[in-house]
Sequence to fold (211 residues):
Amino acid sequence: MKFYDCSTAPSPRRARIALAEKGLLDTVERIEVSLREKEQMSPAFAAINPYLTVPVLELDDGTRLLSSTGIYHYLEAAFPEPPLMGRTAAERGVVADLEWRMEWDGFSAVGECLRNTVQGMAGRATTGPDPYEQIPELGERGRARAQRFVERFDALVGDKPFLAGDFYSIADITALVVIDFAKWIKIKLPEDAANARRWYEAVSSRPSAAV
Ligand SMILES: N[C@@H](CCC(=O)N[C@@H](CS)C(=O)NCC(=O)O)C(=O)O
Fold:
């Protein structure tokens, strides 16, 4: 398999962690796409992913998976052990609910703030080929949403070892990446968020978190 990666960007980190948890990271050919150099906008990369984003996982039969979600689903189906999306039907539903929350309340909030405020993203307020202008109010709204996300995260974890319960899942992966991504806009877990901090310590000390 070929893995189109960017070592500094949050979304490919989600796929990298999942690959590492499945014990597959060393088996894929990794191709670094420099977002700093705008390599994702090149015609060569557009032929690989017309949405101009990383990660991309290219399977041995040539099928290309163009999102973290697609990659999570493929890995879980093709390499079921260890499970990352729940073991029972109910757990799978709970993980999917949490994963959506992490995407929407977390990832999209931080991205909304960053893309609408950082000067280098002027005219690039969304990913992809369309040149949307920044809207400063959306930057402020994204910051407020991201702040609420970190403040509510402690209650979401509660006294459970992991977000979905007693097992590690893609929801933990996405949440870890979101919380590290939020530092880019200077938003951190509150000092007194004991559950969230205990969870963060546990998930970020797994070997997969450092890949
Ligand atoms: N939800 C998508 C998001 C992919 C995405 O937005 N990736 C960013 C890096 S974190 C990207 O490729 N950005 C390209 C750009 O900014 O032009 C996924 O997880 O695959």
In short: The chain is about 50% helix and 5% strand.
